[in-house]
Amino acid sequence: MNRRVYLDHNASTPVHPEVVAEMLPYFSDVYGNPSSVHGFGRDARAAVDAARDRVAAFLRVRPEELVFTSGGTESDNFGVKGLALARGSGHVITSRVEHHAVLRSAQALEAQGFTVTYLPVDQYGMVDPDDVRRALRPDTIAISIMHANSEVGTIQPVRAIGALARDAGVPFHVDAVQTFGKVEVDVHAMNIDALSFSSHKIYGPKGIAGLYIRRGTKMVSIQHGGEHERRRRAGTENVPGIVGLGKAVEIRARDMKAEAERVSALRDRMWEGIRARVPDVRLNGHPTERLPGTANVCYRNVESESIVLGLDLKGIAVSAGSACTAGSVEPSHVLVAMGVPLDWAMGAVRSSLGRSTTTEDVDFVVASVTEVVSRIRQAMPVGAA
Ligand SMILES: Cc1ncc(COP(=O)(O)O)c(C=O)c1O
Asked: How many percent of the chain have pLDDT more than 90?
């Protein structure tokens, strides 16, 4: 069989075999509705409670401060709109490099009369806490800044921003979909009032995620119906998903630190290899404050889609920009916000490494990238991209 290398872990990850094993009985044996009073229901409820306890212990929060949702997108919608709508009107601060789940929630609020400041970032994709301070107004009612950027991996100074938010008495939402279970997230030290996290980025199943809501935080629901999740998010709980998320978190608690070190070293080996062999390349994102497994590289005057397809033919999976906008011919909004010139930004390719990535994989990718980029450049006059 031909070699296949998956370097798109920021888009999604394979479900860990231990997670699959833990979930299986909840499809066929323990299938009751957790809201039902009979034994089948009580068994399902016990599983949901146990998983909630696991996630709460990992985040060092109270179980009742967690609400399970259907995905990172729903958590972000809930976090941003829930905080704003609970306050009725006012001003929201976010950044230009957020995931579209936050950006478009903010735009939806604008359409309802809220005002929004989209903060700029520096060349590394980082928000300056002083810009947050300057943007604060008497009517500011929420701040939403992501923990790590999914495209370039830059980790934002959320601790400093959280301190500003606390001093100003403004609730702080953080999209931690790319950091939860990968790097340390401390909602207390970071003064976070609402935190989006997800399962399928950390070897758990798709269709399940969550929002931490600090006790006492005013937040309205965005999904209405029954009394589920303490009346904060209606809908029958995704019991197998919640069980899977609980197990995935338990595994991350065990493996996270060692894996971050291993994957960082592989990422650096890959970038060093590419830099040594391929001319006209640059690494995007912050040099030190970054996710362990993410390397976003621009190849000047080459279209990223061509590289992605060329590598796909060799069995290598990477992404052009972020997975959520793949297929779009627009340069990534993140790279544009970072001021990356168009002739570089159009050639951005993100590799995101994970627990199965090996040294051999990385060396194969370096050799393949070298060949593919050189072939594309030979076929195309410089500057024609
Ligand atoms: C930072 C960030 N936020 C939110 C999301 C949305 O998650 P999902 O597409 O799983 O709903 C993603 C997904 O890539 C992400 O990377």
From this structure: 95
The answer, yes or no, to whether any atom of ligand 1 lies below 6 A from the CB of 73, is: yes
Which residues are CB-contacts of 104 (< 8 A; sequence separation ≥ 6)?
A: none
Atom number in ligand 1 closest to CA 73: 11
pTM for the structure as a whole = 0.96
Among all residues, which ones are annotated catalytic? 324
Domain around 277: 5-13+256-378
Provide the token pair at 275.
Answer: 């830099």
Burial label, 369 (beta-carbon count in 10 A; 0-12, 13-18, 19+): buried
Tokens 């009032």 locate to 193
Q: Which of 198, 224, 251 is where one domain is finished?
A: 251
Domain holding 93: CATH number?
3.40.640.10
Structure tokens at 136: 């604060």
pLDDT at 2: 81
- Residue ranges for the chain with pLDDT beneath 70: 1, 322-329, 381-385
Residue to probe by mutation, ligand 1, list 78, 97, 99, 325, most atoms within 8 Å of CB: 99
Q: Are residues 240 and 131 in the same domain?
A: yes
What distance in Å separates the CA atoms of residue 130 and residue 133, rounded to the nearest whole number? 5
**Which residues lie across from 66 on neighbouring strands?**
212
Tell me the H-state helices in 5-146. 17-23, 25-28, 39-59, 72-87, 100-111, 129-135
